[in-house]
TrEMBL record:
PANTHER family: METALLOPROTEASE MEP1 (AFU_ORTHOLOGUE AFUA_1G07730)-RELATED, PTHR47466. The lineage of its organism: Eukaryota, Fungi, Dikarya, Basidiomycota, Agaricomycotina. SUPFAM superfamilies: Metalloproteases ('zincins'), catalytic domain (SSF55486). Residues 107-159 form the Peptidase M43 pregnancy-associated plasma-A domain. Gene3D superfamilies: Collagenase (Catalytic Domain) (3.40.390.10). The keyword Glycoprotein does not apply. This is Peptidase M43 pregnancy-associated plasma-A domain-containing protein. Belongs to the peptidase M43B family. One of its GO terms (biological process) is proteolysis. It comes from Ephemerocybe angulata. It holds the Pfam family Peptidase_M43. One of its GO terms (molecular function) is metal ion binding. Keywords: Disulfide bond, Hydrolase, Metal-binding, Metalloprotease, Protease, Signal, Zinc.
Amino acid sequence: MGMSHQIDALNLGFGPPGLRFALRNVTRTVNADWFNNGGPGTPQQDAMKASLRQGGPSVLNIYSVNFSGTWSSLLGYSTFPQTYTSAPTDDGIVILFTTLPGGPLASYNQGKTGVHETGHWVGLYHTFQGSCFEPGDYVADTQPEATPSEGCMEGRATCVVGDVLEGEVDPIREFAFNF
Ligand SMILES: [Zn+2]
């Protein structure tokens, strides 16, 4: 379990579109309040990032924390690139530490939470963004879906005929690890 394997997962996930990540450095900070209570929009998150964030807009800052309380079901969250200019210190992703590759969260310990949040960090939306309608997730070759799903719901088709973006079954395989 470690950050170097998380970077490997990013490079696997973002290999097809040609994004490359190299581990720059890892710092470790002991702060139980930031670690346990650093959910989105919290003062703990703000303090953590203000103290720890490094680099400019091309440097991905990954904070691995333990969401608890209100945020105990959260796997991670991210900023989008369009917010960098107005809030550079906020830039980065925050992920549940147990999702790092080899971590103890069964079925979620391959680093894909980090890949998912990094997708947002480079500007990608969920495939259910905008439901079934244009412009959807703003990516022309991903099939839209009306709502989020969990697991691998083969044959699920939430964008039925009649919607603007109609047709095929919901996406379950459009992910580089599965190719
Ligand atoms: Zn997301």
